[in-house]
UniProtKB/TrEMBL annotation:
GO BP annotations, alphabetical order: post-chaperonin tubulin folding pathway; tubulin complex assembly
Predominant location category: cytoplasm
Organism: Coniophora puteana (strain RWD-64-598) (Brown rot fungus)
Name the record gives this protein: TBCC-domain-containing protein
PANTHER family xref list: TUBULIN FOLDING COFACTOR C, TUBULIN-SPECIFIC CHAPERONE C
UniProt cross-references to PROSITE patterns, sorted A to Z: C_CAP_COFACTOR_C
Stated family: Belongs to the TBCC family.
């Protein structure tokens, strides 16, 4: 059942984003034309309403991160229809919103300004948005070393969102006195960086990863639009890549396995499927040219400078990151 839900979620998000993009393009074209008919507005309103209903029907079957992204896209479409409506002074096609009741959740105090909870939206939608307090966000960092020091033991975050990181080492392996439990991790716009993650009980979704090293243990793994990435992975299902190239897979490093708390060790898959990769951009019987096994002689064996802050992030990255041209 869990695998069916995962497949549904992935298919739904791809279809939703495609439809959303088409609608957005059409609305922009109407706005630029300067000539919008009542029929144009009615058709756009109906299509956005249909998309809203589809998202509502999918509620509960989507990871909360994906649902939030779909909600944001839907809100943008609704705003564009409203703008068109205002420009033609025909209010019968406008969308109406209700204000969110209650005050927004305040941002948590952390040691790092760019590590925080997701803020609550000031607009309500017809589609319920998962509670933002469940998500830890790390974003907009450059030339930094970050570890789990910012993660308060009292915080119970089930999901992690990482975005807009470059030339960083992000070491989220739990210390011996920490219990980090994540159900999902979402990574986007990561470049020239090393990412070490704790055990992920559910899915890991990656978008636009360039020249990076990823170390993770998860149940489901999917990568989009990425290039030159070395993935050290423990996984119980087939990893999936799409529109990606020069991706190299390797087993989870033994030296890092030894650093994991016992609770994390118990969750590692005994028979990892890290080389059973499915490439959705190469639906053929022949081997995919977009990924390969990372040769043993090219694997990182000394992780000591990546798991502690030695004050030389750039030099560590220069030694451990993959060769972009390899």
């Amino acid at each position: 059942m869990e695998e069916l839900t995962w497949t549904f979620a992935q298919d739904f998000v791809v279809t939703f984003q495609s439809t959303s993009t088409e609608l957005s393009t059409r609305l922009e074209s109407l706005r630029s034309s300067g000539s919008v008919t009542p029929d144009d507005l009615q058709k756009a309103s109906q299509d956005v309403s249909k998309l809203s209903k589809e998202l509502t029907d999918a509620t509960g079957r989507l990871p909360s991160y994906d649902q939030r992204q779909c909600v944001l896209q839907l809100q943008t479409l609704e705003r564009k229809v409203n703008d068109l409506q205002l420009s033609t002074n025909k209010p019968k096609f406008s969308f109406k919103r209700k204000a969110v009741q209650g005050a927004p959740t305040p941002m948590a105090d952390t040691e790092t300004q760019n590590v925080h909870k997701q803020p609550t939206s000031d607009k309500a939608s017809s589609v319920p948005v998962p509670a933002p307090s469940d998500v830890m966000s790390i974003q907009s960092l450059s030339h930094r070393y970050l570890d789990t020091g910012f993660w308060s033991p009292s915080e119970n975050r089930s999901e992690l969102s990482i975005s807009s990181i470059e030339n960083c080492i992000v070491n989220l392996l739990p210390r011996a006195d920490q219990e980090l439990s994540l159900s999902a991790v979402h990574v986007a716009q990561l470049s020239d960086s090393i990412l070490l993650l704790p055990q992920i009980k559910g899915s890991m979704l990656l978008h636009n990863i360039k020249n990076c090293v990823i170390v993770a243990s998860c149940h489901q793994f999917r990568m989009h639009d990425s290039f030159a990435v070395d993935v050290y992975l423990n996984i119980s299902s087939n990893p999936i890549i799409e529109t990606s190239n020069n991706i190299r897979f390797s087993p989870y490093p033994d030296t890092l396995r030894d650093l994991l708390p016992h609770s994390n060790l118990q969750l590692l898959a005994p028979n990892s499927q890290h080389l059973a990769v499915r490439d959705f951009s190469h639906i053929r019987a022949t081997p995919s040219p977009h990924w390969r096994a990372l040769p043993e002689e090219l694997r990182v064996t000394d992780w000591s400078n990546a798991v502690r802050d030695v004050g030389q992030v750039d030099s560590v990255l220069a030694r451990l990151l993959p060769d972009k041209a390899s």
